[in-house]
């Protein structure tokens, strides 16, 4: 049930707003690039693989003993069902992974380029 005080957002407006979100997009990355994503509760390392998936370590994967996991990044969300699929990580949003993992709110993102001696 929709709250009468909550204005509806048109899909076209949401799509335009998604392009303005400051963050790291898939097109910004090359194979081997690594993202360091600091969330409210954890730090994650995501390394882009040739398949388009990411090797992810840290955070919940470290705490649960799973270690390094290869998983798709679905995108980022504001915590609801609308996911910005071209966005890999953006401060203020939640990282959504293909295994159903949703991180706490992202605080900071750093890209370590493989072209500059990174991973």
Helix/strand class: mainly beta
Task: Give the tally of β-strands.
Answer: 10
In the predicted model, the low-confidence regions spanning at least 5 consecutive residues are none
How much of the sequence lies in strands comes to 35-45%
Taken in chain order, the helices and strands follow as: HEEEEHEEEEEE
- Global shape: globular
Instruction: Report the helical percentage.
Output: 10-25%
Rg value: 15 Å
Task: Report how far the terminal alpha carbons are from each other.
Answer: 48 Å
Instruction: Tell me about the largest β-sheet.
Output: 5 strands, antiparallel
Structural description of this entry:
The protein has 119 residues and is mainly beta. The protein has one domain. The protein contains 2 helices and 10 strands, in the order αββββαββββββ. Strands 5-4-3-2-10 form a 5-stranded antiparallel sheet. Strands 7-6-9 form a 3-stranded antiparallel sheet, with no helix packed on it. A two-stranded antiparallel sheet has the order 1-8. The chain starts with 10 loop residues before the first helix and ends in a 7-residue tail after the last strand. 24% of the residues are buried.
């Amino acid at each position: 049930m929709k709250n009468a005080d909550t204005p509806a957002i048109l899909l076209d407006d949401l799509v335009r707003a998604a392009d303005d979100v400051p963050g790291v997009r898939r097109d910004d990355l090359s194979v081997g690039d690594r993202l360091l994503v600091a969330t409210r509760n954890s730090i994650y390392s995501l390394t882009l693989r040739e398949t388009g998936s990411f090797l992810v370590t840290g955070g919940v994967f470290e705490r649960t003993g799973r270690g390094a996991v290869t998983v798709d990044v679905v995108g980022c969300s504001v915590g609801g069902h609308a996911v910005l699929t071209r966005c890999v990580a953006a401060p203020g949003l939640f990282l959504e992974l293909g295994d159903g993992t949703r991180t706490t709110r992202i605080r900071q993102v750093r890209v370590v380029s493989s072209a500059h001696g990174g991973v």
